[in-house]
């Protein structure tokens, strides 16, 4: 092992504490495979119950990369030779779907926390109803995390888990929904008998009705709900949204898609949380046509609205984390400025707030973004982008940019500086750049792996893929119009984008196409 000072360190000379600190930062599969049975000291440290009790058998790799044969060899060795030695010490186990067969028939007497990663619905259903997992779920498991790929909603695994988990207190249920049932609520609980032990639920759902069903009183012990909703909209369902929720202490609501039902749906729900202590909101709100002309000056969601219309009903609230975009009508007579928005929080005693406002008088609409500081979310929605004033956003990994006005080179330079760890970027803008004579400043996005410019003007293909403008050393996936791709690469013959395209593993286009002979040379 070589240090930053360019001299060699023998890991055998390190103390146990320092060595364990290093091992804890490495992938467990690599550590166990490489060091068990190397010598007695490594065995003592690695097979110690305090190290091995949380066994994570996932292999860290890009979403676009398959598990390599070498990784499978490592895992097979661990399952056959090492797991039988340590199974009785395992308290928490993380299992990817491709490994379930190898570990399912081993006894885990201490196991209380189980994470099942990247399972297809039918495969997961098979094991949840099988003898081993069902016995664990019924008798032992208190913490369960489930990650489902492409659920067709042919069986309600969520209800199966709730009805089987007799000791379950903490459930994370992540479902990558298929498109055919995005509008259908699937979390109606009242039809089955459910154990009331669940305290904390982390879940993603398709509709706001699902959220209301989860809070209908069936989960009697629920004190924390962290929920991501695809669409918050009006519905024909008649679900009570007035009954108080005295047991709920923590609530987090995330919904990236613009909602026009904030005042009708979300505000009444929040007012029910009379004992809430910790509140998180990540919302994109549209109020166009939803308010009276007299209320234009109060159209944006600001401190005055939040404190008077929401927090007044939450006397025990002591933590509020938020990122709220509002798109609303404005009037020539009067409209709030950025200073007005910030003052609405300051006068309530909250100075830890960032904001930017962009009022477009010619079309009488405006955009306001308010967020708590420091910014705590891994996603950032940037709308009316040219009003972005910068800031420190080290936690952001994914950004979506929307506008009808051009994105210029200097804006992307600012984005690269203020979002240094960005991995996913989506642009939605049909307006081409006005200034195509870009500055001499070369922009670098050192961690960007996923770029989506499918619904962006071809100028942004040149902006990001031409090496003279932008460097993308880790780009793995590109969403782009095939016409744009052929145009900016001159049908895959010029060299302007070759470097940034050299590592791409996955291309998504709107059109079907037959790649020409030079295509695979451009994307080796």
UniProtKB/TrEMBL annotation:
InterPro entries (UniProt xref): F-box-like_dom_sf, F-box_dom, LRR_dom_sf
Domain of life of the native organism: Eukaryota
Limits of the F-box domain: 8-55
Name of the molecule in the record: F-box domain-containing protein
